[in-house]
Amino acid sequence: MRLMWLVLVGMMLVLAQTVSAQARSESLAPLAEQISPAVVNITTSTLIEGQTGPQGIVPEGSPFEDFFRDFQDRDRGGDGDNRPRRSNALGSGFVISEDGYIVTNNHVIAEADEILVEFFPGDGQPAKELPAKVIGTDEKTDIALLKVEATGPLKYVQFGDSDIARVGDWVIAMGNPLGQGFSVSAGIVSARNRALSGSYDDYIQTDAAINRGNSGGPLFNMNGEVIGVNTAILSPNGGSIGIGFSMASNVVVKVVDQLREFGETRRGWLGVRIQDVTEDMAEAMGLEKPGGALISDVPDGPAKDAGLLAGDVILSFDGVEVEDTRGLVRQVGETTVGKSVRVVVHRDGGTQTVLVTLGRREDAERAEQSDEETSEAPADENADILGLTISPLTDTLRTDLGLEEDADGLVVTEVDESSEAFSKGLRAGDLITEAGQQKVTSIEDLEARMEEAHEAGRKSLLLLVRRGGDPRFVALTLDE
Q1: Do the beta carbons of residue 90 and residue 181 sit within 8 Å?
Q2: Is 142 a catalytic residue?
Q3: Catalytic site includes residue 391
């Protein structure tokens, strides 16, 4: 009996080793061969007027300038003259339809005079290079849609659902790293829902090698579906250290569909300024827990027309719970322009539902004017409250601070640097317009709001503070 048991254990060990060996020897080559014909190299050419220093393809001020730059001009001479020169740069992309639509990064083709697409030399592919035209671009997500005219149908890949990608899933990055030509690298999803610098960021972080020139290339799952567009790397030396970022496909698909249909993006616009709800703010407003998006201002627009107010906390938008401001901005932006949506808000200790017809963000941004700058100004009557020295707003202060004639509130003339108010960003020149979600125009008003908060058992007081016309809520502890 014991002998039979030892034989059985030995057979199990041999079987386990065989399975392990097979798993190790499993190759990604079949998948790479299947999807590689749709991956392309992109070469751009730009005429530089009177430039003598090396230039990168990432435009100055690009949100990805600190993360990612493609090759600098290799053809620039060293004679130091100021004659116009040609700057060439390299990137990657992928075909999404048999009639020649190609996705890449906006910064790969930005300001390019000429765009050439080089196809992987697989069976059935057309000419080695084809010129491409720009259908549309979106700087906010760094996505561009190109189009080539081929003599026959092109091999293409499809987008997958990036929301179901899990941390630890295997992925493949393809592209043209460091200008060396077509290349494949493998890794895993290291993290999800990363934000870099934009309102619509939703990046997949991966350790699959992404280098300069991979920008605009696809990140595939093991089903051969594109779940991300390789956009940026985090690196102290410009090379891959295993921290790469790909814009999630569920963001890219919506952008590409709009670029394809309209040649531009058309994002929904609610028309509010918002901020996250912190624990002390939630306590001050009587909310059970932090969450939602606190409206700090309602300028002219859809929200104002519908009756939303500063101080409302948006809890739900179009039937979806709002976790924070980032989530709300993305959801509103992805909603169809002109759609009427139900917005549930916390107001006066209860909830209300408001029906809002969304406008278009791009129109609002074009019409938006620069905020007026403020300057610090002394005041005649002062009071020291909550670490702040404040004064009622006078006509002289309105003029000095560049405020509208009908502006009301209390001016902060000094802030104790050891106070909670200073640590939360209040500074001299700020204008307090509300306390406890009620208007304040005098020091007596503020003291009354503090007393009301004490009587209600609240530990903090919510202030609405404006700086340069930009409002935000700040909760200050009453015991200070």
Answers
A1: no
A2: yes
A3: no
| Element holding 443 (H helix, E strand) | helix 443-455
The overall pTM is greater than 0.70: no
17 Cβ contact partners less than 8 Å away, ≥ 6 residues apart? none
Distance separating alpha carbons of residues 230 and 226, to the nearest angstrom: 10
Quick: pLDDT tens for 353-384: 999 999 999 888 888 644 433 333 343 467 88
Strand 359-360 and strand 460-467: the pairing is unpaired
What radius of gyration do the chain's Cα atoms show?
28
The CA distance from 344 to 275, in Å, is: 16
* Exposed / middle / buried, residue 405 (Cβ in 10 Å: 0-12, 13-18, 19+): exposed
Is 246 a known active-site residue? no
Return the DSSP state at 440.
Answer: -
Active-site position among 36, 107, 201, 296? 107
Contact 273, 471 (CB under 8 A): yes
pLDDT digits 0-9 by tens, 234-250: 766 566 778 889 999 99
* Strand ranges in 319-423 using DSSP code E only, listed in sequence order: 320-321, 340-347, 350-357, 359-360, 383-385, 388-392, 410-415
d(CA 381, CA 390): 8
